[in-house]
Design brief:
Elements: E1 9-12, E2 17-20, E3 28-33, H1 44-62, E4 66-71, H2 86-94, H3 98-115, H4 131-143, E5 147-150, E6 153-156, H5 158-164, H6 177-181, E7 200-205, E8 214-215, E9 220-223, H7 225-237, E10 241-247, H8 251-266, E11 271-277, E12 280-282, E13 285-286, H9 297-302, H10 314-322, E14 330-332, H11 334-356, H12 370-387, H13 392-410, H14 421-438, H15 444-448, H16 453-470, H17 474-486, E15 489-494, E16 497-502
Parallel strand pairs: 3-4, 3-10, 10-11, 12-14
Antiparallel strand pairs: 1-2, 5-6, 6-7, 7-9, 8-9, 12-13, 15-16
Length: about 500
């Protein structure tokens, strides 16, 4: 597909508005997304972010871009509120080596991404594998006058940066520097060493007991969390690249400090477009373990929880995420998941029926009908939704409207002569592409039938029922139909025979 056919617009957090997307290099996109800190199992809020950016990645490729997608693994330097490295804390609690913790939860993260059927990124760098690049960036920041050393630690001089680059610090989060100070996680750390409370560490001297440490020109220590992403994005995408993404909670301090670090190191902003996913709520409240308002992906899949009425499959949960725009707050509720389950199953069943359609040119009178125009307009509408800042909700609504024509055609409410064969073929192609290539949805019922066993059994059962109907053995025919209905299979009788669908 040609990228020039699409007027792609992105909501740029840096500008606070939608903008036409124009990559730095025609036909190519560089995208960096902040990955997980692998000290614990990935939570649902993270899953929403990574599912959203997977769809963005898929769509950019679908419309013809060659995308280098970089998503990091943070395995050092991300501190807790009390100043302890999250990896070290995870190792201490589990009585493991930090790299054991990192490996365990990295594998778990990858497993969860496979469960949600996301594509792997082009490059997945680990922070611990890029210490030299981070040390070099600290040196560059010092040489440009924005870093200073105190007792073996190095801090970024935010006030000086703000004076020399008016409005740059705080632009991403949309607030002024003094307002941001109240939210900074660094406010309570090493205040006696800093020139100003706004300053943040880009290299930290190791304390007694720290085990994830490296030699540097300033001390034996470890890099700051914010610095890691600056160094890794620059290494693989260049000093300035196209898209930087992450969760809304990373705008400040993480992303705001990334912008400052990159500008402090090279005088250039890291990304032209900043994209942020919004929060995932649970029953209209923020997820919180301490309040008992918390659920893991595994809890949803197994149904072993007190918050939902039943288990929900991974594709149903993913479909639920697609029902809202990635920048919208999404409230995870039992009613919402039940609706998503119905919507997902209907979409999969519609696609199955559509792919089985065999248009016959003999039924077509050769003229373009209103139905043809309506279906083609809905295809355009689905693409327009995705071109409008990757709005999956609009695209899904258009697919559902297309599906109504499929069901009318199957149920003979629309005559085959009303739709041109080439329109049906285009509908079959685009409908399937949206489901599989763009949304990354799997047909879970189809997966259970991968070897054709279920189809074979159903064909046999329907043949037996057909013979009973031909012999006017209505009790046997009804018994088969009702028995199948009891296990969730609906039999539909038509002029051309019987078909079955899974309810």
């Amino acid at each position: 597909m040609n990228t020039t056919e699409h007027n792609l617009k992105l909501y740029n957090s840096l500008k606070g508005q939608k903008e036409a997307f124009k990559p730095l290099h025609e036909g190519h996109v560089g995208m960096y997304v902040c990955g997980p800190t692998v000290y614990y199992d990935v939570h649902l809020g993270n899953c929403r972010t990574f599912v959203s950016f997977d769809i963005i990645y898929r769509y950019l490729q679908h419309i013809g871009y060659q995308v280098r997608y970089v998503r990091n693994i943070t395995d050092v330097g991300h501190l807790t509120d009390d100043g302890e490295d999250r990896m070290a804390k995870g190792a201490r609690v589990a009585q493991l080596e930090p790299m054991e913790v990192a490996q365990k939860y990295t594998v778990g993260f990858h497993d969860m991404m496979r469960i949600f059927n996301t594509l792997p990124p082009s490059i997945e760098p680990r922070a611990t594998g890029h210490i030299p690049e981070q040390i070099q960036m600290v040196q560059d920041i010092i040489e440009h006058g924005y870093g200073y050393e105190r007792n073996g630690s190095v801090y970024f001089n935010v006030r000086k940066f703000d004076r020399e680059n008016p409005g740059a610090y705080g632009k991403l989060s949309g607030r002024v520097l003094d307002e941001l100070l109240a939210e900074s996680r660094d406010n309570l750390k090493s205040q006696d060493e800093k020139n100003d409370p706004a300053d943040f560490a880009i290299w930290m001297k190791a304390r007694p007991g720290d085990i994830m440490v490296w030699k540097s020109p300033w001390s034996v220590g470890f890099p700051g969390w914010h610095l890691e992403c600056s160094a890794m994005s620059t290494k693989y995408l260049g000093q300035t690249f196209d898209i930087h993404g992450g969760g809304n909670d990373l705008k400040f301090p993480h992303h705001e400090n990334e912008v400052a670090q990159n500008m402090g190191a090279c005088g250039c902003a890291p990304a032209n477009y900043w994209l942020h996913t919004n929060m995932l709520l649970l029953n209209s409240k923020k997820m919180s373990k301490s309040d008992g308002n918390f659920i893991t992906p595994q809890d949803l899949f197994s149904g072993e929880n007190d918050l939902m009425s039943k288990a929900y499959s991974p594709m149903v949960v993913k479909f639920f995420m697609l029902m809202a725009h990635y920048r919208s707050t999404l409230d995870l509720t039992d009613d919402g998941l039940l609706a998503a389950e119905k919507g997902y199953r209907k979409l999969m069943e519609t696609n199955k029926l559509l792919q089985q359609l065999q248009p016959d040119a003999r039924d077509f009178d050769g003229s373009e009908s209103d139905t043809d125009r309506a279906i083609l307009a809905l295809i355009d509408e689905a693409y327009a939704g995705m071109d409008d800042d990757f709005n999956t909700a609009i695209a899904l609504a258009a697919l559902n409207e297309m599906g109504s024509y499929v069901h009318k055609l199957v149920n003979k409410q629309i005559d085959a002569s009303e739709i041109a064969p080439w329109v049906i073929e285009r509908l079959k192609t685009i409908f399937n592409l949206f489901i599989t290539d763009i949304f990354g949805l799997r047909d879970e019922a189809g997966a259970d039938n991968a070897d054709g066993t279920v189809d074979g059994l159903m064909e046999l059962i329907l043949d037996i029922r057909k013979a009973a109907r031909e012999q006017k053995d209505w009790p046997t025919s009804d018994k088969i139909r009702d028995g199948l209905a009891a296990v969730g299979i609906a039999v539909k009788d038509g002029k051309e025979g019987s078909s079955w669908t899974k309810n």
